[in-house]
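Let us begin with a simple case.
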Amino acid sequence: MLLQAKIAIITGASRGIGRAVAVAMAREGAAVVINFTANEKAALDTLAAVEAAGGQGIVVQADVANAADCEMLIRTALDKFGKVDILVNNAGITRDNIVARMKQEEWQSVIDTNLSGAFNCVKAVMRPLLKQKSGGRIINLSSVIGQAGGAGQVNYAAAKAGLIGLTKSLAKELAGRQITVNAVAPGYIETEMTSVLQEAVKSDILKQIPLGRFGLAEDVAETIVFLASERAGYITGQVIAVDGGLVMQ
């Protein structure tokens, strides 16, 4: 079991990729802290899936865009489990619009959750992670859109590109403490976010994916599990694309 006795916090874990990560980590022996913002039922469904996989976890409501909520999230994890080994910054939202029509709130809310949310969680976990002196793992969820851009998504692209810069800078700061920091950049994954795409749009996207299919949340989750494990101990500051070959850099 790759993550035996590890404690992992996964933000935005009530559904989609976050839920898949929680279940995959639990299956590998980690105890998981399932963060959600509003949908408690979905978060409890994730917890049920974690327990069905033989794992244990807790559910914690916190808005990552709020620094005080992030501090409470980390404190709750420490009170329950005594330590934190892994932080997965997965929480994210979309507010798509072309820039000429994009409202200030649509820009700011995406930046606040997708980029500042990761910063808030990193700040909150930093002191206990360093105090433990046992290393650790921070994994940030970027996106193919952060690498290649997307029409109507300047807010989302800016936030996800910003996460890449945050990842690389933080990796340099923390390498001496044996804390690795990496980013995963999913392509088009079959989640609620992509389910709203029209069939014609999906068909056009599929033509651009060399592997010829949309990804599954489990494809991303297994990559994150590897990066969180000891097997990835010599990997830091990297952006791992899980996109079927859509963006090759």
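The second case is a distinct protein. As before, the sequence precedes its structure tokens.
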Amino acid sequence: MLIFTAKVPRRPIAIGAAFAALVCCCALALNLSPVQETSAPASPSRKGVRTNRDRVEFLAAYGWEVAEEPIATQELIIPEEMDDSYDEYLDLQESQGFDLEKLAGKRVKRYTYEILNYPTGETGVQASLLLRNGTVVGGEVLSPRLDGFLHGLAMP
């Protein structure tokens, strides 16, 4: 039986171990699948909403199923000066990222659709969109009943 012994300096071993660890870390990093972030669904694009189909699809992006045709179409002028009676409505629009005060004195079109899938099963609930030059500038969901409600476009 033969036995060989060798004296190896420690520095090359430490460098080799560090290099091997670095290669293993790189290999692991390349093979790991990317972590997917979960976030709230993005609101649909407000621009380019020109046709009835575009408006129905815009509302569908919020989860609403609506009648194919609007139940009302109106041309409105945003008031030049808004008194305190508009405060709640302006706050609702602002909470959705709409700024109607910038449109004071401008013409907008309001398209109102009947919602077919309101979560409580209530019928007659409506969604209205305010548009100017193919851009959604406001919107809300409301119940026209006397004891009704008014909220933003997001499904409750």
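Residues 95 and 152 are 8 Å apart (CA to CA). The longest helix spans residues 10-31.
Keep these points in mind for the review questions at the end of the chapter.
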